[in-house]
Amino acid sequence: MAYAQPHPRLSVVSNSSHSSIDHLSPTTSSTRFSLPAVPTPQAVAKPAANRPNIYDRPLNKTRNAEVSASAFAFLFSEIVQYTQKRVSGINDLERQLNTLGYRIGTRVLELMVWRSEGSSKTPKRELKLLSVLMLIHTQVWKAVFGKAADAIEQSVENADEYMIIDNDPAIERHISVPKDMSQLSCSSFTAGIVEAVLDGLTFPARVTAHNTPITQFPNRTTILIKLEKSVLEREELLKK
Hints:
36% of the residues lie in helices and 12% in strands.
């Protein structure tokens, strides 16, 4: 099992089932307390009649909205803790994180396609593999993590393998993995997002995440994309 660390780093697993409540001491010596006054109907603020419902807000106006990094780190840490309690090992945990990421990836792709169609009179569909990989490396990473990935490479040994490298993954930044689980990569969640986008664009592949730390970037992660044979065959036809 993982262990908790002091803030600001969040552990992969912490004993969150037993929460503690701090003792609050009154600021005065008096032990008498009074109930707050019940506001009258006139004093209750009425919601603005013209305030739009969250579901009525245009999606294009929220494309640059940012989410608190602390809130995101806390939420993702809780997701990992919740998932680990329901799996039998590291491989199963990574598989479950990949599945959760896949669900997010389908929605990210749907949102990106909708926005591109709404902002362009002639929306373009990418048909070539390299263009799709660059789309994921840049636009998908920016949509999810607020920045582009650091590199994209093709395997020298296998023509069907590509790698997207992130030197400082946002989801790994506040996660502490114990030594007995050193093989665990929480970026399996990101791998699921990439796999969903590739499947949605008809470039089916198996995507996995691997820890590839270096001295300068201890959290460096490689997202390995292994394409299906049909994708390479289509690429050869497009070259003709």
